[in-house]
């Protein structure tokens, strides 16, 4: 099994530009920073490239992951899908997982990490998109402990709650948690347990915030900019992406009611 502790590689500078009054759906207070550093080579260790994909229910994680897979060939592991597959296979944890999902709560970390671990270790891929995980700080710590790895980058699909609720209620895939009661609970869990994880990665300089409002293609253009920056480390060849701009929260601290995020405007 591969094992590594991810490290942040050296940073390079480029000239920055400024966009004012950027506000996230979760009322992050954002101010602009002139620091414009990006990792030259995100991937430093021996393990696979890992990208966590976070965002509230219905923010479009799965939709965008499908496009990332198609464009950049990463292997997509949706934690929710792995859990739903476990329910369908009548495993010993099936009933507990089903009840947890119906309640919009979080399945014990050991169960989810073990499912992710099995998929990663049985795959030849060196580039993973892990969608909808970690859901909590406890999930995050369990992944680091069990896998001996951290994500190289984290994408956060930032979407207003009303839009997320509309999308989930119109999804029509027969999911047991696509109903208004469970969605409300999932949003509470997201704010209480997942936002702190997102902030953690912002502080670590690994978070890329994507504005998840717009058409699927408009949103993917922001994702494309992130992956264009990672081209050298992923061995990707993406023409026409020489000068893209994206927003990357660089530091976050949490006050009583608000999160404060400074943002780097990255030009490259
Ligand atoms: N930009 C968009 N505009 C409108 N609808 C969208 C957009 N992106 C995705 N959708 C639709 O919204 C619904 C939720 O999207 P998706 O399943 O990708 O979200 P998710 O973040 O994976 O949600 P969950 O956490 O519940 O799995 C789907 O029906 C999808 O087709
Ligand atoms: O890491 C995870 C991922 C998911 N869950 C549970 O599954 C549902 C659905 O997840 P989606 O990512 O929206 O498909 C989620 O609400 C949790 O109940 C989990 O416990 N841990
Ligand atoms: Mg999904």
Describe the structure.
This is UMP-CMP kinase 2. Keywords: Kinase, Transferase. It comes from Citrus sinensis (Sweet orange). The protein is α/β, with parallel strands linked by helices and 268 residues long. 40% of the residues lie in helices and 21% in strands. The strands form three sheets. It has a five-stranded parallel β-sheet, with helices on both faces. A three-stranded mixed β-sheet has the order 2-10-9. The longest helix has 24 residues, at 180-203. The chain is globular and about 45 Å long. The relative contact order is 0.21. Mean pLDDT is 78; it is low at 1-22, 28-44 and 237-268. Bound molecules: adenosine-5'-triphosphate, the ligand O=c1ccn([C@@H]2O[C@H](COP(=O)(O)O)[C@@H](O)[C@H]2O)c(=O)[nH]1 and magnesium ion (MG). The site of adenosine-5'-triphosphate has 17 residues, from helix 1, helix 6 and helix 8.
């Amino acid at each position: 099994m591969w094992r590594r502790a991810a490290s942040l590689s050296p940073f390079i500078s480029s000239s920055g530009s400024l966009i004012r009054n950027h506000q996230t759906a979760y009322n992050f207070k954002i101010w602009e920073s002139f620091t414009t550093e990006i990792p030259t080579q995100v991937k430093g260790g021996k393990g696979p490239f890992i990208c966590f994909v976070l965002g509230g229910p219905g923010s479009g994680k799965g939709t965008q992951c499908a496009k990332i897979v198609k464009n950049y060939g990463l292997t997509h592991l949706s934690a929710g899908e792995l859990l739903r597959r476990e329910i369908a296979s009548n495993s010993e944890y099936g009933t507990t997982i089903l009840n947890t999902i119906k309640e919009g709560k979080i399945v014990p970390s050991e169960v989810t990490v073990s499912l992710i671990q099995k998929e990663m270790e049985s795959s030849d891929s060196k580039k993973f998109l892990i969608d909808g995980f970690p859901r909590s700080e406890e999930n995050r710590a369990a992944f680091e402990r069990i896998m001996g790895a951290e994500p190289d980058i984290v994408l956060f699909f930032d979407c207003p709650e009303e839009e997320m609720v509309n999308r989930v209620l119109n999804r029509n895939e027969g999911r047991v948690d696509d109903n208004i009661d469970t969605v409300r609970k999932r949003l509470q869990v997201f704010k209480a347990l997942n936002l702190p994880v997102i902030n953690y990665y912002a502080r670590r300089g690994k978070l890329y915030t994507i504005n998840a409002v717009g058409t699927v293609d408009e949103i993917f253009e922001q994702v494309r900019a992130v992956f264009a920056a990672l081209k050298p480390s992923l061995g990707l060849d993406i023409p026409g992406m020489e000068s893209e701009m994206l927003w990357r929260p660089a530091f976050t601290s949490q006050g009583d009611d608000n999160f404060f995020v400074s943002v780097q405007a990255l030009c490259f």
